[in-house]
Specification:
- With 358 residues, this protein is α/β, with parallel strands linked by helices.
- It has two domains: 157 residues, ATPase, nucleotide binding domain (Nucleotidyltransferase, domain 5), CATH 3.30.420.40; 167 residues, 2-Layer Sandwich (Nucleotidyltransferase, domain 5), CATH 3.30.420.
- The chain is built from ten helices and ten strands.
- A five-stranded mixed β-sheet has the order 3-2-1-4-5, with helices on both faces. A five-stranded mixed β-sheet has the order 8-7-6-9-10, with helices on both faces.
- β2 and β3 form a beta hairpin.
């Protein structure tokens, strides 16, 4: 069974072909056009997807030929596509191209939730079936990225319960905004990580940790962001320039401490002993070390994506999520394609809008 997946929810254009957990072909193009704007511009993201997607689809199939001789679209079982959450114009592009391919080759479409893809990213294998992985439900899940910071319980395939979410900015978004104040460009997460490493992740300025007194599992970074903004504005340029690494490190530590505060609370409240951590921000080495230490303290087994490309947006995770959706009947046939539309605010608990196939 082969699933051809397309991901265009934000500023990565990605295609992949998977067989259950194995990824046989994978291509990701990261858009650089947004850096000068300090954030992702939706109409520019759409334009870049439209330019790149046709060539990436062809390249994905060429890579598949190296693994499976004489393979073509007739060998594809179904097409999977991200239909939300994300930027509406970007999502629309991927859906439109997948509809065209599915109509042409008379294949079903599997609508996939981008966040569910991130959860499945920790189970993705290479084309050789490595590493070996086993499912051991339930899982406590932390998705931490530029657009999302969320805690959920993954009870079984396709069964999710949200237990905590951000009330304002996502963690990655907060880091990007701090980076902008420090003149670090966009995206700023990787730059902040390198600066923090250069001062051994010191927390010199002790910015506030958020939601400390709230016993809910929700996150908030607006107060931290505001505190950082006014602190920077009160300093002269020479001070900021001289202390940029310590400022970046201190802000990063405040964000990570705030996340781990809620993660530890979730571990205690749920009693779940398997933890999934995914999303772009979880690529940060210091954050992963902090989470491993917390997991060890509570006797929890933690899973991160096994390959570097799986931390950011990619189609491999959509192919794997698509496989489990398809095999459980969560797909649509050509007579239903007209009803498939982008859902920019889709969440993990939203119900499948079409009839489940038996």
């Amino acid at each position: 069974m082969l699933i051809f997946a397309v991901e265009t929810s934000c500023d990565e254009t990605a295609c992949a072909v998977g067989s259950r957990l194995k990824i046989l072909s994978n291509v990701v193009y990261s858009q650089a056009v947004h850096s000068k704007w300090g954030g992702v511009v939706p109409h520019l993201a759409k334009k870049e997807h439209e330019i790149k997607l046709p060539s990436l689809i062809n390249l994905t199939m060429k890579k598949l030929h190296r693994v499976i001789n004489d393979s073509d679209f007739d060998n594809i079982t179904a097409f999977a596509v991200t239909y939300g959450p994300g930027l509406a114009p970007a999502l629309e592009t991927g859906i439109r191209y997948v509809k065209s391919l599915a109509y042409e080759y008379n294949k079903p479409i599997v609508p996939v939730n981008h966040l569910e893809g991130h959860i499945y990213s920790v189970f993705v294998q290479n084309s050789k079936g490595r590493p070996e992985v086993q499912f051991d439900f339930p899982y406590l899940c932390l998705i931490i990225s530029g657009g999302h910071t969320q805690l959920s319980v993954f009870n079984n395939h396709l069964s999710h319960r949200i237990i905590g979410k951000t009330l304002d900015d996502a963690a990655g978004e907060a880091l990007d905004k701090a980076g902008k104040l420090l003149g670090l460009g966009y995206p700023a997460g990787a730059v902040i990580e390198r600066l923090a490493e250069s001062v051994e992740n010191q927390d010199v300025f002790k910015f506030p940790r958020t939601m400390v007194k709230h016993k809910t599992l929700d996150f908030s970074f607006s107060g931290l962001k505001t505190s950082f903004y006014y602190f920077i504005k009160e300093q002269n340029e020479q001070f900021v320039y001289k202390n940029v690494a310590k400022l970046a490190s201190s802000f990063q530590q405040a964000v990570f401490d705030s996340v781990l505060l809620k993660l530890e609370l979730a571990i205690k409240q749920t009693g779940i002993k398997n933890l999934i951590v995914s999303g772009g921000v979880s690529a940060n080495k210091h954050l992963r070390a902090m989470i491993r230490s917390l997991a060890k303290k509570h006797g929890v087994n933690v899973l991160f994506p096994h390959f570097k490309y799986l931390y950011g947006d990619n189609a491999a995770m959509i192919a794997v999520a698509g496989y489990f959706r398809y095999t459980n009947g969560f797909f649509i046939t050509p007579d239903e394609f007209d009803t498939l539309d982008r859902m920019p605010r889709l969440n993990l608990e939203d119900k499948f809008l079409w009839k489940v196939k038996k």
